[in-house]
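User: Second chain of the day. Same drill as before.
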Amino acid sequence: MSGSRSSELEGKRLRLRSVEVRDIPTLFEWYSDPLLMSLYDGIQFPTSDFESFEDEYRFWLEHDVELGRGGSFMMELRYSGRAIGECSWALV
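Assistant: Same format as last time:
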């Protein structure tokens, strides 16, 4: 994520950090999984193809997040850096 809204929280085993552009391929994989998405309770991003998803998520990061109208965080294992989840919020 560009700009100054980047943040991070760290515990013993987990890190919660702002989503960055480099996370988009992982997020696409998750958002394209019908089983995972059946558990998701938020806004559905287009997952028909990677380019559409990337455009939508970049717009989210560069506009809504940067303007403080939302946020998106990756949950990752602290020692391996492996992403295990994502959480987002948005003003509606």
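Residues 76 and 85 are 7 Å apart (CA to CA).

User: Great, on to the next one.
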